[in-house]
Amino acid sequence: MPSISIEGRSLHYREVGKGTPVLLLHAFPVDSESYWPALESPPPGVRLIVPDHRGFGESTPGGGPLTMDEIASDALALLDALGVPSAVVGGASMGGYAAMALTQLDPSRVAGLLLLGTQCGADDAAGKERREKVAREVEANGTAGLVKEMLPKLLSKTPPPETVARLEAIMSRQSAQAVAAAARGMALRPDRRDILSRFQGPALVMVGADDQITPRAKAEEMAGLLPNGSLQEVARAGHLAHLEAPGEILRAVSMLVLEYARVAR
Ligand code: MLT
């Protein structure tokens, strides 16, 4: 996997296809391989760029909580290194939090926004406490318990067994240090409602009909805030809808790319 160096850390990424750049930011607690359906069959005319966030996959860990702004600034450094002035930016769940952080840091780099199974609000006090409990638990006992608890919540009730097995393998290989850092980083993320209401580019919000973590109401709220946003519910899919209905998500990426090309002309 190729990598770039940022302040002495290596940031690994996957890159496939040729055409309009589409940056995809991954969820918690996985790595860039979690976008395998898109990486294995990128839509025509699309250059997919998918980093491993700090500490995940092959990327070097940072120190302390992994904030959404840090994921976003690493992604911007990656676009710089690849000579990409702007990209359609997409993210599933935690990747969506980071996509919104990137939009806040530099909206001029965001040609379009794809938010999958995510939400724009901050954690409440109880949510922050739950994150800290997760971080302490994985630091003390490893990630096996978290993987067992989270895996059924990430997909619909009847996912294909091979999808479950591959997702479980990706989750299981992430380090406890990275998982704890990201749990603490998500707890620190601010509310991004104002960012969405100011973003003028094309935007698509997608949610699996069986999403138990960020249900449809969260998606409706984001689509309602985005001036050029629309909402698409994905049937027979859970939280990580791109793993259960990859065709629909890839068509959505293509539509955003076309819309971007139309607006950019
Ligand atoms: C994810 O899938 O990235 C997480 O479920 C996000 C979260 O815990 O808020």
What can you see in these coordinates?
- β1 and β2 form a beta hairpin.
- It is globular and about 50 Å long.
- Helix content is 46%, strand content 18%.
- It has an 8-stranded mixed sheet with strand order 1-2-4-3-5-6-7-8, sandwiched between helices.
- It is α/β, with parallel strands linked by helices and 265 residues long.
- The chain is built from 11 helices and 8 strands.
- The longest helix is centred in the last third of the chain and has 19 residues, at 246-264.
- The structure holds D-malate (MLT).
- D-malate binds at residues 27-28, 93-94, 186, 213, 239.
Number of helices: 11
Q: What small-molecule ligands were found?
A: D-malate
Mean pLDDT: 96
Give Rg in angstroms: 17 Å
Instruction: Identify the strand order in the major beta sheet.
Output: 1-2-4-3-5-6-7-8
Straight-line N-to-C gap: 34 Å
Hey, roughly how much beta strand do the residues contain? 15-25%
Oligomer: single chain
Helix fraction by DSSP (H/I, runs of at least 4): 40-55%
Low-confidence stretches: none
Largest sheet: 8 strands, mixed
* Global outline: globular
Tell me the total number of β-strands: 8
Derived structural class: alpha/beta
Q: Encode the helix/strand succession as letters.
A: EEEHEHEHEHHHHHEHEHH
